[in-house]
Amino acid sequence: MFKEHTLNTTEIIDLIQKNTQIEVKASENSYDASIIVEPKDVLPVMKFLKLSRDLSFKVLSSHTAVHDGEDFKLFWNLLSYEHNLETTIESSVPVVSPQIQSVCKVWKAADWLERESYDLFGIQYIDHPDLRRIMLPEDWIGFPLRKDYQSPEGYQDIENSRSEIDKRFKP
Amino acid sequence: MTSELKTEHITINMGPQHPSTHGVIRFVIKTDGEIIHECDPDVGYLHRGIEKIAESVTWQGFVPFTDRVDYLASMNANWAYCMAVEEMLGTEVPERAEYIRVIAGELNRISSHLVAIGAADMDMGAITPFVQLLREREYINDLLEMICGARLTYNYYSIGGVNYDLPEGFSIKVMGFLDHFEVAVEQMHRLVTYNQIFINRFANVAAVSPEMAMDYNFVGPNLRGSGVKYDVRRNKPYSIYDKLDFEIPIGTASVGTLGDCYDRYFVRVEEIRESVKILRQCLQQIPEGEIQAKVKNAIKPPVGHKYIRTETPRGDTGYFIYSDGKTSPSRLKIRTGSFTGMSIIPELARNIFIADLVAVIGSLDIVAPELDR
Amino acid sequence: MNAYFNNIKNGIQTVFEGMSISLASFFVHPITIQYPEDDISSAEKLKETYKGQLGPMPENYRGILDVDLSICTACQLCVKACPIDCIVIDAVKCDKSKVQGTKSEKPAVKTRTCTRFDIHMGKCMFCALCTLACPTGAIVHTKVFEMNKYQLQDLVLSFVSEEEKEKAIKRDSELKVEAAAEKAAKAAKEAEKTEEEK
Ligand code: SF4
Ligand code: SF4
């Protein structure tokens, strides 16, 4: 049903470099191998990955961000059902100006996934058709999944304080 | 004399508390008479910040929280998380524990599909099947209660194995249940699947083509309903699924178009049968032995990221974990089937009847806590 | 025209098919327990009413927590295991003794005792992580699940009474005095020894 040989990360990198002339490199990570792409190159690389006959990553399985020090690391997990392939694309943007090209045009699934990471991390996706909060209320202040996020005193009329009983359990 | 009739779209609100939205979800619908012109799902009412909680609890301490991600299939949610951490630590799970995991997971898959089917029927106005199917689910609840002591939020899987061994006489009880259950499935077929009214409501409604399904990252029964034969259990086998013999049902457009609501529904029914098959095999093959691998008390996986996918009842659930070598995850993202399934609604709901929107939501099997996390 | 009549026929057939299944349900045993009229704790009575279809609660049911303080060694492992901090333990020293836990054959050594053992049942999520972590089996889930209370405060279970606490603290200070005396005696002996050597 499926091809015996599945491409590994180095072969995928070779394919990208040969066909798009964009410099990408493999990341050193203890678990999943991933491909590091410069933020400005993300959109063309993604387009190639989807349209290439040998790869045809037609599915964007997950997209998320990680707050790591001065940077947001962005991850895209791609799947190819035809070739039974799986890969991770990695990129990073600085926390002070978190801007990246949206990949909505490549996969429709990116729409909500990007809205979610905008909502929780404050990453600005350029050319996203409808970038607004998805989980939190529209008037929420701050981006909760950032490491330096302080939980608010309250929201509208709801007070966010710990009860006397809770304080006895954990001062 | 001609007078021009001025028409405009009416905006109506469906939910958040609505019996057929499967939890607390709100839909803002612009309608033209009874036809939906635009539908904007407003999600997030059940957002409990589980991903943020993960950053403050220990690796083992997060397992009970995964129960709350998907309350209809907590076993499978536990499984996905535990497997991810085990892969990060390089822990080998004992074989008996793997069998127990499959047994518990498949039982839970059946019970989850029963609710999915029953709720879809109830949305169509058929209350009897829902009650009948919940009765069957009650037997499964009893079985799962026997092994772990809880009926809904099991917290049964632990990192490196399972928490309790199977009690005595469990396999006999499960076998007895399966015999009884196969009859019940037949009855359900008579009651729902071949029911003309039901077919008319579900067939040819909101068909999703295979390309569209992949583009929107449909997973699980929804994806297979569109005719894409992809199942993580088969295509990227984990646990002991490569040793088991089972089919992957896909949508065949038996009464309508490929990928319509009926196909998605029918794939679930067929999957129940396959689960019964898997359960019988597991109960015959299960070996004796350990149920828990040795795992340290304070887990600290090395720095790195891992993305693990498992096949839960609502499809391929992905856990993306980023560890920075501390006692709790630095970032944990849960990609669920309901979330991506829901993102198709604005496109799927265009130019269909309001009553059909209910059918679409029912057939996509959306569980609100899983959607919002 | 034919299709029209066929549709009517199909519709009626379908309805009757469903009705027959519904009607059959009149003749099966009840599946739901009439709670709270029925006594769910007695297995015999349940068997009688429900013809063996329903059993009592399983042995390992995860109900509200109970602590057997006599075998608790105040090791704090349950506190560390609980993900939502709903257990709190304060402990002091006590007379050294051996206690026989329920989990292993070997008795555990008890050198500390609790002066405060509170569990916030209002927050507890019955995950059993504490019972699994406990080395002696002192903390267990009971089969009790009814715990409606009028006040949130009443959901905090305190297992150490005031008297016990005072007793433990008193014994602790006595032990401290004893230990200090012992230490002083030892030091005096040492001093004597060194002087002798000189
Ligand atoms: S059952 Fe779970 S939540 Fe409750 S006290 Fe024990 S560890 Fe904490
Ligand atoms: S883990 Fe057990 S023995 Fe240790 S403090 Fe808790 S209840 Fe006592």
Tell me the layout of helices and strands.
The complex is a heterotrimer of chains A (171), B (373) and C (198).
Chain A: H1 9-20, E1 25-26, E2 34-36, H2 42-51, E3 59-68, E4 71-80, E5 85-94, E6 99-101, H3 110-121, E7 124-126, E8 154-155, E9 158-159, H4 164-169
Parallel strand pairs in A: 2-5, 6-7
Antiparallel strand pairs in A: 1-2, 3-4, 4-5, 8-9
Chain B: E1 10-14, E2 26-32, E3 35-42, H1 50-54, H2 63-69, H3 74-89, H4 95-123, H5 127-148, E4 157-158, E5 161-162, H6 170-193, H7 196-202, H8 210-215, H9 220-225, H10 232-235, H11 261-285, E6 304-312, E7 315-323, E8 331-335, H12 337-342, H13 345-348, H14 354-364, H15 368-372
Antiparallel strand pairs in B: 1-2, 2-3, 4-5, 6-7, 7-8
Helix pairs in contact in B: 2-3, 3-4, 4-5, 4-11, 4-14, 5-6, 6-11, 11-14
Chain C: H1 2-24, H2 43-50, E1 65-67, H3 77-81, E2 87-99, E3 108-120, H4 129-133, E4 139-141, E5 156-158, H5 162-197
Antiparallel strand pairs in C: 1-4, 2-3, 3-5
The structure holds iron/sulfur cluster (2 copies).
The strand count of chain B comes to 8
Instruction: Write down the secondary-structure element order of chain B.
Output: EEEHHHHHEEHHHHHHEEEHHHH
- Mean pLDDT rating of chain B: 84
Succession of helices and strands of chain A:
HEEHEEEEHEEEH
Percentage of residues assigned to helices of chain B: 40-55%
Low-confidence stretches of chain B: none
Cα-atom Rg of chain B, whole angstroms?
Answer: 21 Å
Q: At the first level of CATH, what is the class of chain A?
A: Alpha Beta
Radius of gyration of chain A: 19 Å
Low-pLDDT runs of chain A? none
Features:
heterotrimer; A: 171 residues; alpha/beta; Beta Polymerase, domain 2; two-stranded parallel ribbon; elongated; C: 198 residues; alpha+beta; 3-stranded antiparallel sheet; two-stranded antiparallel ribbon; 5 strands; 39% helix; rod-shaped; binds iron/sulfur cluster
Please characterize this protein's 3D structure.
The complex is a heterotrimer of chains A (171), B (373) and C (198). Chain A is of the alpha/beta class. Chain A has one domain: NADH:ubiquinone oxidoreductase Nqo5 subunit (Beta Polymerase, domain 2). Helices cover 23% and strands 26% of the residues of chain A. Chain A has four helices and nine strands. Chain A has helices at residues 9-20, 42-51, 110-121, 164-169, and strands at 25-26, 34-36, 59-68, 71-80, 85-94, 99-101, 124-126, 154-155, 158-159. In chain A, strand 3 (59-68) and strand 4 form a beta hairpin. Chain B is an alpha+beta fold and 373 residues long. Chain B has one domain: Cytochrome-c3 Hydrogenase, chain B (Orthogonal Bundle). In chain B, the strands form three sheets. Chain B has a three-stranded antiparallel sheet with strand order 1-2-3. Chain B is globular, with a radius of gyration of 21 Å. The termini of chain C are far apart. The site of one iron/sulfur cluster has 14 residues of chain C, from helix 3.
